[in-house]
């Protein structure tokens, strides 16, 4: 094994990575700006998958000489375009939205946990109690409802005094 190749192969590779990487980054930023705030908002499962795929694609463009900038830009544009199309349809079709997006789930109500729902959603009572305390409440008896939102966050609705 040639140890020097582990740290440096040639200047051409370094210059290519710098130029293509910079341009690919600019293309990605432009596409994300064009696609709107949704791409950068709280992530549901599908948004997370697209975000990871964008990162993986950018990495491939940067490091694989076999992928030209134009091909990489098309791949980035395709991912963002498909996400835009999916969200466009899901906003206009309730049935399609239910198919691709999870629904909020009630995990506690009237000061008591919904035990089966906690099991189904793989949540512990401690995780829910932590969310309750982060809202400045003492415990489960202080809430009317706790909801696991479709983006994975937990909403707490306090009891009215």
TrEMBL record:
**Matching InterPro entries, A to Z?**
DUF421, UPF0702_alpha/beta_dom_sf, YetF_N
Keyword set, alphabetical order? Cell membrane, Membrane, Transmembrane, Transmembrane helix
Instruction: Tell me the membrane topology, using the record's own terms.
Output: Multi-pass membrane protein
List, for all copies, the residue spans of the domain called YetF C-terminal: 93-160
User: Transmembrane segments in this chain: where?
Assistant: 13-32, 44-63, 69-91
| Record's keyword annotation contains Glycoprotein | no
- Location in or out of the cell: Cell membrane
**Pfam families per the record?**
DUF421 (PF04239), YetF_N (PF20730)
Report the residue ranges that make up the YetF-like N-terminal transmembrane domain in this protein.
Answer: 24-89
Q: Which PANTHER family match?
A: UPF0702 TRANSMEMBRANE PROTEIN YCAP (PTHR34582)
Query: What is stated as this protein's family in its record?
Result: Belongs to the UPF0702 family.
* Name of protein: Uncharacterized membrane protein YcaP (DUF421 family)
Please name the source species: Pseudorhizobium tarimense
At the highest ranks, the source species' classification is: Bacteria, Pseudomonadati, Pseudomonadota, Alphaproteobacteria, Hyphomicrobiales
